[in-house]
Amino acid sequence: VNKRSKSNDECDNSTNKKLCVESEHTSSNKESNKNMELHETSDLPECWNKGQYENFKTVNEWLVVKNKALGCLICKNITNLGLSVVDKTLRFSKPWQDCSIISNDGQIENIQFGDCNIRDLCQQFQIDEKSTIQSFRIYKMDLGKKEIPEDLKPLYKSIATIPVSTSECERNFSSMNEIMSPLRTSLNIKTVAALLFINCVGPPLTKFEPEKYVRSWLLNGRHSADDTASRKRNHKCDKTYESLWKLL
Fold first, then answer.
1. Phi and psi dihedrals of 209, rounded to 5?
2. pLDDT in tens, 124-182
3. For residues 101-136, b (16+ Cβ closer than 10 Å) or e, as one string?
4. Is residue 40 within 8 Å of residue 76, measured between CB atoms?
5. 46-75 residue pLDDT tens
6. Model confidence over 28-46: pLDDT tens digits?
7. Higher pLDDT among residues 224 and 35, named by residue
8. Residues 17, 21, 24, 28: what is their CA dihedral angle, to the nearest 10 degrees?
9. Where is the HAT C-terminal dimerisation domain (predicted)?
10. Which residues, at least 6 apart from 60, have a Cβ–Cβ distance to it below 8 Å?
């Protein structure tokens, strides 16, 4: 009986030791995961010097996140931030990274910072690169405190007019069915594009002033529908089957 009780005590002790080791292991894993999560969603380590900070920022420039609510500047794992799908797309998408360069309010030591992004945007929107980059450098030197330079405004307006979602484009393109009706099938591509543009961003009929457009129409040699000075159309009568018509 004593031997059996001793063996039971030994088993209990070994089980307790095993449970203690497992609990220590899980607690250490939780602590390490917590530290890792803290490191991933917090600011850079304080022990880093300026060179290490700039190197990390240059290599991982696309991971820079500025969020006042979270209080973090750089985050490696962006999925843990609870961002929406649209917000993730905007942060990871290359054109939107280029657009975020325009609104950079921080102090920039390198005068060529963001030139590549501006060049890509100019090529995409077909804007003059040289004047835009020069204006952007002046804008950076002023740290964005002054007004936007005139040569930078075309790019700024192009970025501001990007549609929020593709549903807006689909909704506008559905109006093509109203424009290309059976009575207006002879419209060319240029005219249809102009009518689509007016339908999408044009003013309502209550604010539309057609006088200057009608005047330019008449000055181009065209006539109004009720014009009596224009020559009437001469209808030719085909008399080839006139003998047949008499029999009928």
1. -115, 100
2. 888 888 888 888 888 877 765 667 888 888 888 887 776 656 676 677 777 777 888 77
3. bbebeeeeeeeebbbebbbbbbeeeebeeeebbebb
4. yes
5. 566 667 666 665 555 444 444 444 444 433
6. 444 444 443 333 334 455 5
7. 224
8. 170
9. 155-199
10. 74, 76
Handedness of CA 26, 29, 31, 33 (dihedral sign): negative
- Side-chain half-sphere exposure of 53, counting CA atoms within 13 A: 10
CA dist 67 and 202 (Å) reads 37
The total of other beta-carbon atoms located within 10 Å of residue 75's CB is 21
Those residues with Cβ within 8 angstroms of residue 175's Cβ, 6 or more apart along the chain or in another chain: 196, 199, 200
Hey, what are 17's tokens? 């030791």
Contact (Cβ atoms closer than 8 angstroms) between residue 44 and residue 74: yes
Residues 6 or more apart from 211 whose CB is under 8 A from it?
none
53: number of Cβ within 10 Å: 13
State in Å, rounded, how far the first CA of the chain is from the last one: 133
Question: Two tokens at 140?
Answer: 């950076």
Q: What is the pTM of this model?
A: 0.30
d(CA 56, CA 248): 96
Closest CA to 34 of 79, 80, 65: 80
Per-residue pLDDT reduced to its tens digit, 187-205 = 888 888 888 888 887 888 8
Compute CA distances 65 → 5, 16, 77, whole Å.
63, 46, 11
Q: Average pLDDT for residues 18-34, to the nearest whole number?
A: 48
User: Cα separations (Å) of 126 from 132, 162, 194?
Assistant: 11, 14, 20
